[in-house]
Each structure stands twice: as C-alpha cells, then as structure tokens.
Amino acid sequence: MRTHFAFFAAALLVATGCSGPASTGDSDADTDASTDDAGSNDDAPATNDAATQQDAGTIDSGDGFGAARTACLNEINKLRATQNHAAYALWTGDAIDQCVDEQATNDETDNSPHEAWLQHKYPLCNGNGQDECEGYGVTPTAIVKCLDAMWAEKDQPNCSGCPACSGAYNPNCPNCDFYGQNGPECGHYVNMSADYFAKVACGFSAKGKWAVQNFSQ
Prior knowledge:
The protein is α+β, with helices and mostly antiparallel strands and 217 residues long. It has a domain at 49-157 and 195-216: CATH 3.40.33.10. It is 26% helix and 12% strand. Helix 1 (66-81) runs parallel beside helix 4. The termini are far apart. Mean pLDDT is 80; it is low at 10-56.
C-alpha cells in the first residue's frame, strides 16, 4: 500500500484558500484544499477535556491508543526541541480522543483526507489545523515514522523559508511552499513547528491505517 500524508492548516484570524487535492500518484504526499469557513474553533463548544500531559509515560487512553498517542506527542515535541520550540501540550480527554479517532476513521473509510475536518462532522476537536497520515498504521512505530517524514519537509529547497514564519500564520511566507504549488508541500512541517499553536490532539482510525493530528491555540 502506498503510504502518504496530507495536511490542512487554516488561518487563525483570516480564512485562506489553497490548491485542490493532489492525487497524482506522487511518492508521499497529498494536499487538500482549504475553505473560507473552515479552520477556526468558533463552533467547538467549551470543554474541560484539554490536558497538558507530555513525557509522562504511557498516556491512559480509553480507546486503546494510549501508547500511540504517547508516541505522537513525544515525537512531535522531540522534533520541536531540535529547533528550540516550546513543547505542545496534549489536547486529550475522552471526548477529544473519541472525536479525533472518529475523524481518522471517517477519512480512512471514505478514502478522503480531511473530509471529516473540512465538513465539520466532529467539530469538537477541529482546532485550527490538521495533518493526516494515510496508510502508515496506528502503532507507536508507525506514527513516529509518519511524523518524521512530515518533519523532513524542512530539508526541501522550497521549504527553506518556513522557519522564519513559525511565529505567525502566513501561507505566503517567502521561500516556504506552504501548499505545494512548486513541489512537495511544506505544510506538515509548518503545523508541527508553529509557535502559534499550543496543543495537539492525536487520533487513530479504528480501521487501522490512518491517523490525524489536530493543532490548536
């Protein structure tokens, strides 16, 4: 099975658009379009499910994905630390975990990256941006492999300017091909390294192959 991933990052203050899905059979990435009404957390009700667990052993997760969720958070923060970015908190709790799992399961079932996120099917956990691993699997080893591949976008020539824009969302950041107009996109790395996000929720498909990471302020 071909493994690839996709990202969606929406503006925090101003909505933005991007290119449509790239389903060219390219080696490792598909990118999905943004919409003018997607990306803010305005429609998500207040919740007490936000938590700040990180590097605290295996996270207790009632959905059975505790080890994978731990690996997801710890790998993102390990990579962020290499560039002196503050650690993300884990956005978790029974309702949030169920929500991101449902998004991943929906998307794998329909073979449609970001479908649930864009259509606000489970809006509680939408946050402000999403990365999605397609086909890697839902084990700790699999999620680490996917996250490392996303982070490696920073080494592409068309992503060389992305670190300069980590402090504020800017889809037009110079020398940062955010949506992949001139080659493989940089958006996964941007989401993972952004200083304008504070937390991440990691969700895993019940079908066993897809995973999502939702980022929020």
